[in-house]
Amino acid sequence: MELIAGKKFKLPVWEAALRTMRPGEHARFRCDAKHVVLYPLVAKSLRNIAAGKDPLEGQRHCCSVAQLHDHYSLGYPDLDELQKNPQPLIFDIEVLKVEEPGSYQQDPWAMTDEEKLQAVPLIHKEGNELYRQGKVQEAAAKYYDAIACLKNLQMKEQPGSPDWIELDQKITPLLLNYCQCKLQCEEYYEVLDHCSSILNKYEDNVKAYFKRGKAHAAVWNVAEARADFAKVLALDPSLRPVVSKELRSLEARLREKDAEDKIRFKDIFSQ
């Protein structure tokens, strides 16, 4: 894991321990129970990170009493037992690397709310530049990071509230950029899921219909693709040349598929 000096990372005792160490050093620290009461919650977050999940997964915006109720079980028997009966803990710590102040780019989950808001436009710009350079996978990762920042903030708002909606409207263009990358990476079902989620909230989003139509066409959902492209034309007739090109491409692929099927079935019946 990575610790940022001054952030305390929920367990100030870890930062206190690290300040006594040098790069490459391996040391053991025994910490009294009063210093590690929050360790079960922190450990759950670290396990989420290791599994590629949101570290705050399962937490929600509510009062402290409700939070305690929510965390009655953390989903791990060992952490549940430790939460019920706090114990002194021993940590083996090895310092792998120390970076200079200002040189470290934080992961989104490690940022404060203000830092997340400030980082989103910069991450978005980095993603756009990577996409222009043809580095589609790298661009998708940047868009994902920006979305993660905003999603984390959105979790703290009441769904449907003005602040929640404002954050959602910032997420949508980033998610569409992410879908464009996934189209190029031929990850069509992910595009279908994300575009559908956008259209469930914003029924007039032309870009979402267009990208979903391309994804439907790629996986041979012909009727759905035609319906999405028709919706694009209904919302923005000026896109007729682009839509016509996609429909011609779809029809050409269908003809090729029919020809291949005829040859394949002919061979089967001849045997």
UniProtKB/TrEMBL annotation:
Matching Gene3D superfamilies: 3.10.50.40, Tetratricopeptide repeat domain
Keyword hit for Transmembrane helix: no
GO MF annotation terms: peptidyl-prolyl cis-trans isomerase activity
TPR repeat spans: 206-239
InterPro entries: AIP/AIPL1/TTC9, PPIase_AIP, PPIase_dom_sf, TPR-like_helical_dom_sf, TPR_rpt
Signal peptide: none
Record's GO cellular component terms: cytoplasm
Domain AIP/AIPL N-terminal FKBP-type PPIase: 1-95
Keyword field contains Repeat: yes
Assembly with partners or alone: Interacts with RET in the pituitary gland; this interaction prevents the formation of the AIP-survivin complex.
Protein role: May play a positive role in AHR-mediated (aromatic hydrocarbon receptor) signaling, possibly by influencing its receptivity for ligand and/or its nuclear targeting.
Annotated protein name in UniProt: AH receptor-interacting protein
Source lineage: Eukaryota, Metazoa, Chordata, Craniata, Vertebrata
Gene of this entry: AIP
